[in-house]
Amino acid sequence: LAKTTQPISMDSYEGQEVNITCSHNNIATNDYITWYQQFPSQGPRFIIQGYKTKVTNEVASLFIPADRKSSTLSLPRVSLSDTAVYYCLVGFPISSGSARQLTFGSGTQLTVLP
Amino acid sequence: GAGVSQSPSNKVTEKGKDVELRCDPISGHTALYWYRQSLGQGLEFLIYFQGNSAPDKSGLPSDRFSAERTGGSVSTLTIQRTQQEDSAVYLCASSLTGGRLSEQFFGPGTRLTVL
């Protein structure tokens, strides 16, 4: 199973760029890496997904080195509303054959300060 | 509705009682997932349904937990003989497919409190 490790918490100030790294040493060849954001009392929300190198969308970038044993979520110019828990997810379910668990990281509590 | 819905939003029960939690996925989504989130903790995968295939039950913590998905749509998670350690938020998610690129859409969760 792909186990993931993230920092428990991070603080930042408004307008700064924030980078959150997730370690996943046992990632499998077929695994994609997905990041989710969760606000209190809500379910997680998809941010970005990638397999290798760099992916960018309107809210974030995801950097994945060649060995894929880690990934870094980059949030440009954070605001107070970006305060949330960020999870990285490795793996995807297989409908038959050997079962794979979906492994969420423990999550990183990002606090953006004014 | 436009999103994943779950009911009830809150459930308080006594130790030893059975509970049923319901999830209505997004229409057309073939994959459905159940997770558990204890206070201040990350998400713990419980079970996964994909179309008509046998569910992946590899995350269920004990045989007191079971889940069904009727007609490929609504799902019910049942916890028998509830224990205090079952207290948590139970989250349901659905995705268009179960493949590696499938984005999961989460419901608001059901907060279960076992007294």
Question: What is the gist of this entry?
Answer:
Chain A is mainly beta and about 110 residues long. Chain A has strands at about 10-15, 20-25, 35-40, 45-50, 55, 60-65, 70-75, 85-90, 105, 110-114. The radius of gyration of chain A is 14 Å and the shape is globular.
Structure in words:
- The complex is a heterodimer of chains A (114) and B (115).
- Chain A has strands spanning 9-13, 18-23, 33-38, 45-50, 53-56, 61-64, 70-75, 84-90, 103-104, 108-113.
- Chain A has 114 residues and is an all-beta fold.
- Chain A has one domain (9-113): Immunoglobulins (Immunoglobulin-like, Sandwich).
- In chain A, the strands form 2 sheets. In chain A, strands 1, 3, 4, 8, 9 and 10 form a 6-stranded mixed β-sheet that branches. In chain A, strands 2-7-6-5 form a 4-stranded antiparallel β-sheet, with no helix packed on it.
- In chain A, a hairpin with a 6-residue loop joins strand 3 (33-38) and strand 4.
- Chain A is globular.
- The N and C termini of chain A lie far apart (39 Å).
- The model of chain A is unreliable at 94-99 (pLDDT under 50).
- With 115 residues, chain B is an all-beta fold.
- Chain B has a single domain, classed as Immunoglobulin-like.
- Chain B is built from no helices and 10 strands.
- Chain B has strands spanning 5-7, 10-13, 19-24, 31-37, 43-50, 65-69, 75-79, 88-95, 105-106, 110-114.
- In chain B, strands 2, 4, 5, 8, 9 and 10 form a 6-stranded mixed β-sheet that branches. Chain B has a 4-stranded antiparallel β-sheet with strand order 1-3-7-6, with no helix packed on it.
- Chain B is globular, with a radius of gyration of 13 Å.
- The termini of chain B are far apart.
- The relative contact order of chain B is 0.33.
- The mean pLDDT of chain B is 91.
- Chain A binds chain B through residues 30-32, 34, 36, 41-46, 49, 87, 92-96, 99-107, and chain B through 4, 31, 33, 35, 41-45, 48, 50-51, 53-54, 56-59, 91, 93, 98-109.
